[in-house]
Amino acid sequence: MSSETIFDKIINREIPAEIVYEDELSLAFKDIQPQAPLHVLIIPKQQIATINDIKEDDRELVGHLFVVARKIAAEHGFAEDGYRVVMNCNADGGQSVYHIHLHLLAGQTMGWPPYANNKPKQA
């Protein structure tokens, strides 16, 4: 298992978070630097560092995170208008905490591409 992350500390209630959902497999809480009116992070209680570390046996757990995202979006009234769910992988993919997590963003129209002003790296 990787070293303890800030998400492990939130799971263990060592640091506070505005929790919006919890079950035996996952925890969801509001992002402290929201990028949309609703910005929730949905994490598994089992630590998996990156998407690259997801194993075949983790597929139900990862799928569960998307079910939780759907529930939260519906509970907050965003299911009909729409929402975005994003999972980043490693530094170039925007991952800053090495414990997989979904970003649920809602409450505004999401543009495409999401980072239109970012230029790709030169080969």
TrEMBL record:
Species, as recorded: Pseudidiomarina sediminum
Name recorded for this polypeptide: Histidine triad nucleotide-binding protein
Please report the stretch or stretches of sequence annotated as the HIT domain.
Answer: 6-115
The listed location of motif Histidine triad motif is 99-103
State the coiled-coil residue ranges. none
In the record, what terms sit under GO molecular function?
A: catalytic activity
Tell me which domain of life the UniProt entry assigns to the organism this sequence originates from: Bacteria
Annotated transmembrane regions: none
User: Gene3D superfamilies this protein is in?
Assistant: HIT-like
Active site (catalytic residues): H101 (tele-amp-histidine intermediate)
CDD domains named among the record's database cross-references? PKCI_related
